[in-house]
């Protein structure tokens, strides 16, 4: 299949490479010439703009963009996809944006006779490289089945979440919980260690007891507890604090739009915002534990 791919950042580039490995023909666009050159070297063809990409004979287009403003520009702008793409081409946006924007863009696509799926991902850069991402997909069941084989070349778990925008709903809800749960684990680990507990022993107890969660048993924020967690490499790599802050902002805004209280989410957003303001935005979000640890603040 001839696929167009827009957005070749830390997530988009490895996703695009997996489409090439699966045997698809790929035409790509990104503002970074170096990112495009890397994909061209791997076998893709470069497009000069989103409009130029849309005017090719692509059968499906995937986008992975930083924020809602970029998605609106790429899809709805005068030089955007919908102004130039053929009717019938399936559009898949894997950016993480708010559900209402996803629904707005999907409605515009339908008006142009282009089916569209919102398909944000979970699994990070490691999952993108390994092709093991989880895709949370919003759109019609028919369009989901049409897009599933392409998504399966980039991910392992492809879940239909319901109508347009529901993929973003699932992503926002999941990451809201992730941000809150990491704060809970950070607080509990810091308290236990301050009271004289060995962190590895404490984590082992939590991970076999009722406090067990992914933030503890897979991504524990205390240094040295898990060898492969960002906490054991100075909180480098992983999922950045500013990315978590962005997702909590999306959750907060979505909650405001439907008048749904998110008490813990609001507190979590303030804590990550304070941590980012201290210059820690590029650190993995599990570094939030340093707000609690006296030795880290000394």
Automatic annotation (TrEMBL):
EC code(s) of this entry: 1.1.1.31
PANTHER family reported for this sequence: 3-HYDROXYISOBUTYRATE DEHYDROGENASE, MITOCHONDRIAL, 3-HYDROXYISOBUTYRATE DEHYDROGENASE-RELATED
GO biological process terms on file: L-valine catabolic process
Catalytic residues identified in the record: 171
Name under which the protein is recorded: 3-hydroxyisobutyrate dehydrogenase
Residues of the 6-phosphogluconate dehydrogenase NADP-binding domain: 3-162
Database matches in NCBIfam families: HIBADH
PROSITE patterns (UniProt xref): 3_HYDROXYISOBUT_DH
UniProt xrefs under InterPro entries: 3-OH-isobutyrate_DH-rel_CS, 6-PGluconate_DH-like_C_sf, 6PGD_dom2, 6PGDH_NADP-bd, HIBADH, HIBADH-like_NADP-bd, HIBADH-related, NAD(P)-bd_dom_sf
Catalytic activity field: 3-hydroxy-2-methylpropanoate + NAD(+) = 2-methyl-3-oxopropanoate + NADH + H(+)
Family to which this protein belongs: Belongs to the HIBADH-related family.
Pathway annotation from the record: Amino-acid degradation; L-valine degradation
Any Pfam family matching the protein: NAD_binding_2
